[in-house]
């Protein structure tokens, strides 16, 4: 793997980073959106993407150019940047998508990489096999072996300073995705797309998507730049970034616009259903839905494409600011509440909290406890790990949500969802958390798990727990030798 990616700041596994693209002579700030450019049909031109949307990178399909009677010769002569009129980084796909859609293509990895290199692509792609979800294990393994041969071939092709993608496949088999990530990292190639996830996104299978991405990330080294291939809907950007994806490509902005579909960070709307535009982009502040409906098809498509791009870039800026401030998981949580399938995705992400914890900063902006899901965040996992290293002083310890008491050798604070902690830690992250007055059961249960962990590590210490009316589901999880004291009853 080459050294082209640098992380500036983490939040969970999400990161602000810089991808150096030597052939383009540019450094792309990540997370980044790559609008997909159809060489034959440009509703929004690359020059407009650059000047109006600040696009630093885009992606186009070299296989379409390779097979085009009108464009192959011009692109070979002028080069890709001139043909598209774009000075940022240009990524080229290889025809793998066409392979998945139509079953065959007539180009090899050597031929298409050589072509990509000749036309001036900045990041090329071999012909991998995008194995869809839910195929037999035999098919997933067989196709992954072919993809891995293609990566080895790609590493041998002379491509100068063009970076080369090493797609990570493996269908819905997480162990194959993890092995594929480890293998791709060994290939000597540069950027790591997680492939064939579009069918999962089309079916709103965000939990499966989270599992697949987390698996690929386990195989890849931490420093690997990761592209979620074909992920273009802003509703899932925050989730995917929190899992550690750095690059997204969107054909959806244009495809949706063609069908009068209007993207938001919560969902997709149909233009005919809208009375108001819930957005403040230039399109939405200067038109009403009725006005846009009255326009001809080309103009409608252009305006909706522009809106879809504005909302996509806007969401990436929101995400970048959230990483900077350290509240990316609060943003993921907010997005998760927009759609039940996104909530499944967030819950699946939290299944990987220990994995996310490894890069999560030890200190961030205030932890906001927003739901039962918050109780499973990486910060809670870390606090429970820390309890193994904290020693109470004395023989009798009070763990309390209320005031201290002189009858005990030491009094610790008790705060759902974290559990117990010595009072001197109260001013440090995440124990300065903003919490609601009414927790859901998982917050108490997580706190009880913390208590149980502390108690089991100190068999000779007597523990008393002064709680504010915890539910039975939490109290039942405590070791029997803990004395219980309900503060509510004591009033
Ligand atoms: Zn808008």
UniProtKB/TrEMBL annotation:
UniProt pathway: tRNA modification; archaeosine-tRNA biosynthesis
Cofactor(s) the protein requires to work: Zn(2+)
Molecular function in Gene Ontology: pentosyltransferase activity; zinc ion binding
Catalyzed reactions per annotation: guanosine(15) in tRNA + 7-cyano-7-carbaguanine = 7-cyano-7-carbaguanosine(15) in tRNA + guanine
Cofactor binding summary note: Binds 1 zinc ion per subunit.
EC number(s) stated in the UniProt entry for this protein: 2.4.2.48
Residues engaged in binding Zn(2+): 279, 281, 284
Main EC class the enzyme belongs to: transferase
GO cellular component: cytoplasm
Keyword Zinc attached: yes
Gene Ontology annotations of biological process type: tRNA wobble guanine modification
Superkingdom of the source species: Archaea
Xref: Pfam families: TGT
Keywords annotated in UniProt: Glycosyltransferase, Metal-binding, Transferase, tRNA processing, Zinc
Sequence similarity: Belongs to the archaeosine tRNA-ribosyltransferase family.
Protein's job: Exchanges the guanine residue with 7-cyano-7-deazaguanine (preQ0) at position 15 in the dihydrouridine loop (D-loop) of archaeal tRNAs.
Listed name of the protein: tRNA-guanine(15) transglycosylase
